[in-house]
Amino acid sequence: MRPLRACLGAAAAVALAAAGTTALVTTSASGATNALSDRWYAAAPYLMPTDNDPPDAAAIMDATGLKAFQLAFVLAPNGGGCSPTWGGTSPVSSDTAVQSVVSTIRAKGGDVSVSIGGYGGTKLGQACADPAATAAAYQQVITKYGLHAIDFDLEEPEYENSAAIRNEIGAAKILQQNNPGLYVSVTTAGTADGTGWFGKQMLLEAKSQGFTPNNFSIMPFDGGFNGAASQTAALTNFNSILRSTFGWDQATAYAHEGFSGMNGRSDTGEYFSQADFQTVLDYATGHHMDRFTFWSLNRDRQCTPADNGGRTSGTCSSVAQNSWDFAKYSVKFAGVTPPTTTPTPTPTPTPPPGISCKTAWSSAAVYTKDNEVSYGKHNWKAKWWTQNEVPGASEWGPWQDEGAC
C-alpha cells in the first residue's frame, strides 16, 4: 500500500480434500458452516469493509464467481494497548459492522481471511509485550469470526523494528500451532531484487524461529516497477532469496511464494493493467506459486474525472475497466472460470494540460511544510517535515498530491 479457522474448543475442525488442497469445516460466530479450499484463501483479494467506499461483496460474488475476501486491516488501538481493532478505532470485541459483511459473504457460500498490519497505524506487534501476548490478541480475531485463514502484512514502518517483527513472527507460529489447519500468509514489500534488507531480515527471523507459513508474498509495486515484466522478474529474484534463506529447491520455494499486486495506478504513478495481471497470473500458475492476490477490491472499478482525475485513488483504479475486472484474475487463480461480460470501459483519465512539474523529489533532501516537488509525473506538497519518504507511498504520509504534471 499493499491476507481460519476458529479456535479449537470454539469450533470443530474437520480436514477435507478439496481441489487437491486442505480445507476446514468450522462453525463460525454467525452460526454458518463454511468450507473453502486453501486455494481460495490464497486467491482472496483485499477488501476494506468499512473504509474507502466499500463495495457490495455479494454483488462482486454474483458478477465474478469470487468466494474469498481478504478483510483489512486489524491494528492496535490508536490510543495504545494490546487489543485488536479495525483500523485502530473499532474494537474487534464489540464489532458488528464487519461481522455483518462476513455473514453476508458466508450466506452466499464464501468466506473471509483477515489481514493484520498494512502500511498505516500501529501494529499489534509494536504494541504487545511479546509473541504470546501478540498471539493472544490475534486469537481474539480468529475466535470472533471463526476464521480459516489469516494474513500478516509486515511492511513499513513495522518491519524496520526487529522486536515488533519478532513478536509478529512468533505470534504467527503460535497461532499456526494452536489452530491446526490455519492458512497463514506473510506479505511484505517487493523490490526489483525480490525484497529489501528488512524483508530479508524478516525471513531470517522466521527461519530462526522455525516458522514456515503457507507462503511469503511480496508486493511488487511502489518501487520503480513498470508493468508485468518487472514484477515477474522480482518474483524470480524472490524465489532465489527463499531458496538461499531456507535451503529449499526451486519448486519448494515457488510452492511457498506469493504475489500481492496493486490494480491500476499505484501510489507512485506506476500502472498495472488487466493484461499485466494476466501475465503475472500465467507466471504464478506456471510456476505453481501458492498465492495470487491484489490491493484492492475497493479500487476495482472505473474512475470518473470527479472521482479521481487521473490520481491514485482508494476507491477506483485510474485505468479503463469494467467493475471487478481484476477480481476475475483471482477467480482464475482459484481454478474457476468467471462469468463473461461485455467490456464497456471508458478512457483512462488524462492529466490536464499545461501544468509544469516542480523540482524532482530527492531521497536525500530535507523538506519542510509547503515545500513542493514532483514525483511519478505528479506534483506534491509537504504537509510537514520529511526526509526519504516517497511521495504517495501512503495516503497517510507526509505528501499531499497536487495532481498530474
Averaged pLDDT: 88
Regions with little confidence, pLDDT below 50 for 5+ residues = 1-33, 342-352
* Total strands: 20
The helix/strand class is: alpha/beta
Oligomeric status = single chain
Beta-strand percentage range? 15-25%
Q: Rg from C-alpha positions?
A: 20 Å
Helical percent range? Answer: 25-40%
Care to describe what's here?
By secondary structure, the chain is of the alpha/beta class. It is 29% helix and 21% strand. Strands 4, 5, 6, 7, 8, 9, 10, 11, 12 and 15 form a 10-stranded mixed beta sheet that branches. It is globular, with a radius of gyration of 20 Å. The N terminus is likely disordered.
List the helices and strands and how they pair.
Elements: E1 14-18, E2 21-27, E3 33-34, H1 38-43, E4 46-47, H2 57-64, E5 68-75, E6 85-86, E7 90-91, H3 97-107, E8 111-117, H4 124-127, H5 131-145, E9 149-153, H6 162-178, E10 183-189, H7 197-209, E11 215-219, H8 228-246, H9 250-255, E12 257-262, E13 264-265, E14 271-272, H10 274-286, E15 291-295, H11 327-333, E16 366-367, E17 372-375, E18 378-382, E19 386-387, E20 399-404
Helix pairs in contact: 5-6, 6-7, 7-8, 8-10, 10-11
